[in-house]
């Protein structure tokens, strides 16, 4: 098949193999239908879960708002993971577990197994646990139902099994979610307990130092101006200390998170430095920090309902959404364990939120510090030294108290969440026992099967076309062989209405054999057929290529690359076509190995060319006439059998015989053996005016045709052109090609009863024998 094909070539290929494609569609669709009919009914039990996004950052910080649907993809990943299915398998009742270890494959599984064995795939024997997990992958499915809702569905032939598996899957998913959250809360609680102990010690030391100083120096008057400034400064510094304490806590959390991420990076180096490997993560993080700063500044001037605040909140939400989606996609590719994926995603998101929090707190801390420093300068200028030192001690106590109180409050939040033992997932609709089987969707399955069959059929057609090295069309012959095509003869039986008697199988009588041989001479018996018109077009081409000179006739040799390509049929029909135009034609059967022409005309092969060249008989009695052709068509059969045809054809009488025929007949048509198998055509070709190579469409290979042409050119034999035989115009050019469209309307088949070309052959032969004996008697 040529690589440079256009749309029309694609259409031609598909039309040529339309039966194969249709058969493929019917087979696959039928197979799917049969499998669906024999498939046992299945029952489905469904559980609906509500997912809430409660990250641990939200426990200790309230000003970061994330949306529920952002974590749905992560939860679906967990539900579909191998490790989670193993967890579900461990919780199944023994009866259900044993049923899942048994191998009872469906029709589809059996088909898959057969195909794998057919193509030689090694079948690995699975352990019972692996077999259960594999079956659970087929039974359990999960999908997002919109909003924060996840649907888990278990499908089984047993309704009780479906309900149990769906219920256990939902319960284990909720337990898994709570366990993951409890593990993180436990780590945070331990961290805050350590920080509270340190803060309590610092507060006690500050209080002791203040109390000692008061006892020694005494207290200042509440009515002094410096005391009023101190009170205002104290209010500002309280806010400053609160912000500073929050920042310190956030930084401590950041260190803890970085430590955990570093531990994961040691196990999985591929997730290390993800911001460098995936620059978009760093860009989104910087964008989120900038937006938080803008919101912090805008909140001092606008309410939350102000358009500017609404726009900032929407931008922050979208940025958080993009971050979660990006990080979720990266972790799925980089980390093999779903538990590790879950922890890493949570830690990394919390790290980014903590960095945003630290950046926001640093901005607030800077603002409060500038304001506090301004008040301090005024106090230090007006306040006496004794009051100044007392102020510093009071401020230190207040700072430590606020720090301690903040830690205690956050720890109480964590303890409250931990004691509730509530995760991010809750059951909206529990599993129930299915009452009716699920729909089989046979129509959908058959449509899918038909589409698969169509794809398979088209693919197979192109594979066959790719492997096909034969010549099919006129354009292929002219482009690949670089020779002219004299005519293309359509397949006679595909264009004629109803198959002649020759196509019937079974035992044939002598009469049917006669009709079969006569049917091959379609130019005489079916003169209005497209095949007959193609032969007349070949006759016209030869008249133009070989004009008459000096009243002598022309000798034309027909051969083919291989056997059974129709050269003898074309030779016989060409001779008849010429005889019908009042040309005097002689047809010679020079295929001494497999002679055929005598069968077409129902005569004996004896007394023919071999006898003429051997000199056993006179020529006069060996050329037979056809009365129906008005004595214009005569036949020379191959003659008797010979052991060495090459020696016969090398006889000097061959040239004399052909030259004699030139002087008597307008055309001498020679049927020669195939070129690839024998060199007889090369010996005969030297005595001819030109050679015609017959190619059967879809059978003759390109290499064989090129080899034949090379052999002809090598011995310098005149080459007239190629005749394409049995060309199926409908297959190659489509149902509406120019050839079919024209001849279908113009040449209506006008069948008439088959009549032998040589009428009453036995009587004719007896008459000729009497004439020979009479002549011989007169000479004596």
Produce a short descriptive summary:
The protein is built from 31 helices and twelve strands. The chain is of the alpha/beta class. The protein has three domains: 7-177 and 431-464, no CATH class; 215-425, no CATH class; 471-779, Rossmann fold (3-Layer(aba) Sandwich).
Task: Please describe the structure with a list of short key phrases separated by commas or semicolons.
780 residues; 3 domains; eight-stranded mixed sheet; 31 helices
Q: What's the SSE blueprint?
A:
Elements: H1 7-16, H2 18-38, E1 43-51, H3 56-60, H4 72-79, H5 82-91, H6 94-101, H7 107-118, H8 128-139, E2 140-144, E3 149-156, H9 159-217, H10 225-267, H11 274-277, H12 279-299, H13 307-334, H14 338-382, H15 385-420, E4 425-429, H16 442-467, H17 474-481, E5 485-490, H18 492-495, H19 510-520, H20 522-525, H21 530-545, E6 554-560, H22 567-579, E7 585-589, H23 597-600, H24 609-614, E8 624-625, E9 633-636, H25 645-649, H26 653-664, E10 667-671, H27 680-685, E11 690-696, H28 702-714, E12 719-727, H29 729-733, H30 738-746, H31 761-779
Parallel strand pairs: 5-12, 6-10, 6-11, 7-9, 7-10, 11-12
Antiparallel strand pairs: 1-3, 1-4, 2-3, 8-9
Helix pairs in contact: 2-16, 5-8, 5-9, 6-8, 9-15, 10-14, 10-15, 12-13, 12-14, 13-14, 21-22
